[in-house]
Amino acid sequence: MAANIVRANALAFATLAALACVRAAPVNPEHVATMLRANAEDDAFTHTSIVWLSGAEATTTAFVAAGGGGDEPVSLFERHVGVSYFIGEGQRKPWAHRIRLRGLLPDTQYTYFVESGTFVSERHTFRTNGPVAAAVAAAATDADVPQQVHLSFGQSIAEMNVQWATAGQSNTSEVLWGQASGSLDGQANGESFRFVGEGNPDGVQWYHRATMTGLQPGKEYFYRVVSGGVSSAQFSFTATPAGNDWPLKVLVYGDMGRNGGAPSLKLLLQEVAAKSAQHIIHAGDFAYNLDDDGGKRGDDFMNRIQPLASAMAYQTCIGNHEIAHKMSHYQNRFFMRNVAETKNMWFSYDVSMVHFISFSTEVFFDTTFSKEDMLAWLEADLKEANLPANRRAHPWIVAFGHRPEYCSNADDDDCTTPKSVVRHAMEAMFNRYGVDIIIEAHEHSFESLYPVFNGTVTQKNFVNPRAPVHFISGAAGCNEADGWCVNPILKPHGPWSAWRSWLPGFWGISHLNFHNATHAYFDFSLADFDGHVAYHQWIVQSSHGPFAG
Questions:
Q1: How far apart are CA 505 and CA 83, in angstroms?
Q2: Degrees (nearest 5) of the Cα angle 152, 155, 161?
Q3: Could you give the 3-state DSSP secondary structure of residue 390?
Q4: CB-CB neighbours of 156 under 10 Å
Q5: Can you give the pTM of this predicted structure?
């Protein structure tokens, strides 16, 4: 039977981890696709990877030609050689092939076909893009112009925090806001501070924080930040609606690099433009790394996410890549609730029907902050969240931290071992207080887990789970290994693994939607395939509360 070739822009694309069982020649290339990646210098999508599957180890060759309509003679095609790698037993096509193309012409159509052994695919086309968007261009070079503008939830739905930076010294920090564009009648003064030292010798060093107050629920607001009399551009956001019975949509991801995260960033910009969600959760590991190049990598990353983070609350937790320099970049670059008390390391907030908890897994691997302090705070927070009136108002409890308790990745990370430090410290508490969903990252892959406690699966479905449901969404695209950014999954490590995706280039983000008090939805959407939903799962819980165990 002819190979089932899937074009790069096909919405019906099936992920390589869950292939349809179609009989084909053992080496015949299947699921051929391109994955455009941004050029680090100019943000144009002028790098790409071509990937496909085959049934046996074979040569990995692609033939590529610029321009034309796909009928060019073979003599015009340039030959490129790549690598193949084994993706595990149990796959009908267990060999994956990848070829990386760099320095392509921007805004140009290319034709290509691939070859594995003696089998050749049909011809495909793809087009390189221009810049991701003007909105993610580098911040103005004027030292006084505010940059790196980002929002986070305040102490109530009537508040929104904002933080920004200036390269030059400015001791004034002001935010102006209002419901009419250009008519900003709200005003608040904030604080400024300097972030300098070993961790940030070359980066922007003046930071500013302020809080917009008296916001009317559900209303659109326009705002500017001002330092030293110099104003930023005007931004806008929608204040959190009132009540606890309205559908909530959250964008979720972890491990997004300055360069490797470009495809996910492009998808996120589309989501923000469409106003498809109310806030963002970034579950650790930013920029790779915030402190690189003396802090300039962090500045660049924060400017790149400004179009997202200036439009809705950008909620975070710390990852292992933020440990350096006593976690100073994470402490200084973000402005979460209770920052004065916990330095962004742990906090909670309520939105609609959900109680969210951000916690640090890094306290178990670094001594900058006390794990005992965090665990004591966490238990007190969970006790309060489970008071009858609070659990009725916010029946869903969602916790997010960086390192997973369980994972199927073929590495030596904490989540791969039965003696997991994070699992030993956190699992019993989350189970005891009925945490419904745990969001994790760290592994550069996506994995969905059945409800599990103490290594035992309580059920192989998601209807009235009797233990927390874990989702690992760390595939936003990091910078490690020259963009490969791979933590392979060769097989599930336990019966708790419901679904997995890890192949290079299959970067993406997740959507966490709460339809009502009993129904929630989680997915994994592929950034390089126009947001195609590779996996989705509904969680139905009709009786929220502590789990037995």
A1: 14
A2: 30
A3: helix
A4: 12
A5: 0.84
